[in-house]
Amino acid sequence: MYRRRFLGMTACVAGLAGCIGESDRELYFHEGDPFIGFADMDNFSGTVRIVPSCRDEAVEVSITDGQPNESIPYVREELGEECSFEISIDNEHAKSVHIRGTEYGGVGIDEDGEVTMAIEII
Questions:
Q1: pLDDT tens-digit profile of 68-81?
Q2: What CA–CA distances, in Å, run from 12 to 5, 16, 103?
Q3: Which residue has the higher pLDDT, 17 or 29?
Q4: Would you state the pLDDT for residue 97?
Q5: Left if phi > 0, otherwise alpha if psi is -120 to 50, otherwise beta: which for 100?
Q6: Whole-angstrom distance, CA of residue 88 vs CA of residue 82
Q7: Contacts of residue 70, Cβ cutoff 8 Å, sequence gap at least 6
Q8: Max CA-CA distance within the chain?
Q9: Exposure winner among 3, 49, 86, 98, fewest CB in 10 A?
């Protein structure tokens, strides 16, 4: 009797693991989804430099009156990929941020060059 109960519990746990593994795909950002983007810029003008730990190239974006001239190009290369970013404003370090596989970061900059991050979680 104990043997049957053990076998039944083992099958149930194995079955649940398969279901949980598939649903995990919906709990993370996918390949091609962005890590970060611009949010509220509040009339900022200047240059934003973004250096990622997960890529080889840094990006500089010129912003005039709160309007970026281009977007931030860093996207995930795999499901749930994580990355850290160093953000500088006009060549001065402003913020360090780590974006997890379940997060998206919106970079906001006020007119004084103060950086805020709005992290969205799935």
A1: 877 899 999 999 99
A2: 11, 6, 32
A3: 29
A4: 97
A5: beta
A6: 20
A7: 61
A8: 75
A9: 3
What's the DSSP call for residue 34? B
Token couple for 38? 């611009």
CA angle 116, 118, 122 (to 5 degrees): 160
Domain boundaries, the chain: 2-121
3-state secondary structure at position 69: coil
User: What amino acid occupies position 69?
Assistant: N
Residue 45, CA atoms < 13 Å, CB-side half-sphere: 2
Q: In one letter, which amino acid is 7?
A: L
Residue 19 CB contacts under 8 Å (≥ 6 apart), including other chains: none
Q: Which tokens is 111 given?
A: 């007119």
CA Rg value for the chain: 21
Q: What angle do CA 27, 107, 83 make, to 5 degrees?
A: 50
pLDDT digits (tens, 9 = 90+) for 76-106: 999 999 999 999 999 999 999 999 999 999 9
Round to whole Å and give the CA distance between 55 and 72.
Answer: 13
Q: pTM, whole model, 2 decimals?
A: 0.77
